[in-house]
Amino acid sequence: MQKFIAIDIGAETGRVIVGNVSRMEIIYRFSNNLVRVKDSIFWDILGIFNEIKKGLKKAFKKYPNQIVSIGIDTWGVDYVLLDDDGDLLGNPYHYRDKRTDNIMEVVFNIIPKKEIFTETGIQFMQLNTIYQLYSFAKKKSQILENTRYFLTIPDLLNYWLTGIIKNEYSIATTTQLYNPIKKDWSIKILNKLGIKKEIFGEIIMPGTEIGKLLPIIAREIGADSEVAVVAPACHDTGSAVAAVPIEDNTNYAYISSGTWSLIGIETVKPIINEKSFKYNFTNEGSADGGFRFLKNVTGFWIIQECKKFWDEKVKSYSYDELTEMALKYGPANFRIDPDDLRFLKPDLVDDNMPDRIKGYCQETGQKVPEIPAEIVRGVIESLADKYTKTIKMIEEITNRTINEIHIIGGGCRNSLLCQLVANATGLSVYAGPVEATAIGNLMVQAKSIGQIKSITEGRKIIRESYKIKKYYPKV
């Protein structure tokens, strides 16, 4: 059977994966580390591209003459600017960089908050592209004046593989610069912010072939020059949700659980109304051209940052060890709001996430946790509470009763989280597949060449091919 390559890059790691809808194999892993320069943080985009080529070389060496296409997905909102020659005009900033501090209020003075939501249907977060780009335009207007192309991170990587510049739909919707009704860039917002619309190019749908590998790239990685680069849902959550193994006609909610937690449902049309504005929900593009109506909340980032601190200052723990310690500890005596701004960004001087949690508990009059087991337990319980509140908001906004929850991504391996979500919501929780993003990426590629006919067919194959664990509510 023909094989595909999924290049899946998250905030911590990247993977090069070979497979099809029913089977996948991780060929290569690499770290994706932020780079600090003075008081700013960036992505090492050249390093990322170099690692991608290393992985591709391994994949084509192992499976010569079997791979027909490549698809890339990454996180959303971050971007690059290119000049007339298609060269980078600077390094891509990391979405947690501080340059967007207080920028939202500045933008709202130009375009009222409700008008932005009506135009884009996107959740308000200071890391969104609209605020990043406006901040950049104010500080480095001369660079923006010399810009010819705006590309998101996966669009850039696709360009470097093919030499062809395109913008993919699902990732474009994350920018808060896209109008989901008109299905195009929001000229109204760009004009009001003084950002020239000419740098925003054609938007293609998931499953579209972007082009063949550049001959020089094909030679470097040992591939046939006829291998295509196909746009999956280039936003990693778009690919992940495509792989949710649901049955037909199921009123379900998904939780894509990783560094971020994305909780939502699928819809044909965007849901832009008073309640979705009030509760700060978002409408992002899905792999079938529809929408993922969801809320983006902080996920395992907080535990990742705690682990980083403990590894350096206390003791090195694996994630499994931390979860087991939290399970044995029992219920915690505190809760945090995972979306409190103090948990958003790494600290350039003293990156001590456990102390931030303790400070939050002191300020809110709660018991201050002391040991790692207690801190991890409290964070996981806080996530479960946040998920439950978010699902209730979805039911209120849509007047739809959620019957079951599907947790996909790395968080589905955390049995404590899955059980706590089942208990808190009173709903059955289906956990898996872990590698939903890569599987969804492979599935869209398979659909693009006719190996499968639809996402519904692909989901049926996923249900039959991957282990899905069920958790029932416990009183």
Brief overview, please?
With 475 residues, this protein is α/β, with parallel strands linked by helices.
Low-confidence stretches: none
Lateral strand order in the biggest sheet: 17-18-16-15-19-20-21
- Count the beta strands: 21
Q: Considering the protein shown, what is the CATH homologous superfamily of the largest domain?
A: ATPase, nucleotide binding domain
How many angstroms does the end-to-end distance come to? Answer: 47 Å
Instruction: Tell the overall outline.
Output: globular
CATH architecture of the largest domain: 2-Layer Sandwich
Characterize the biggest β-sheet.
Answer: 7 strands, mixed
Per DSSP, the total helix count is 18
Using only C-alpha atoms, the radius of gyration works out to 22 Å
Description:
The protein is α/β, with parallel strands linked by helices and 475 residues long. It has helices at residues 45-62, 103-110, 113-120, 129-139, 141-145, 153-162, 169-172, 187-193, 215-221, 236-242, 274-278, 301-313, 319-329, 353-363, 372-398, 415-425, 436-448, 455-465, and strands at residues 3-9, 13-19, 24-31, 34-37, 40-43, 67-73, 79-82, 149-152, 167-168, 178-179, 184-185, 203-204, 209-212, 228-230, 252-257, 260-267, 282-285, 291-298, 404-408, 428-431, 469-471. The chain folds into two domains: 3-230, ATPase, nucleotide binding domain (Nucleotidyltransferase, domain 5, 2-Layer Sandwich), CATH 3.30.420; 246-432, ATPase, nucleotide binding domain (Nucleotidyltransferase, domain 5), CATH 3.30.420.40. It is built from 18 helices and 21 strands. The strands form six sheets. The chain has a seven-stranded mixed beta sheet, with helices on both faces. It is globular and about 60 Å long. The model has no long low-confidence stretch (mean pLDDT 96).
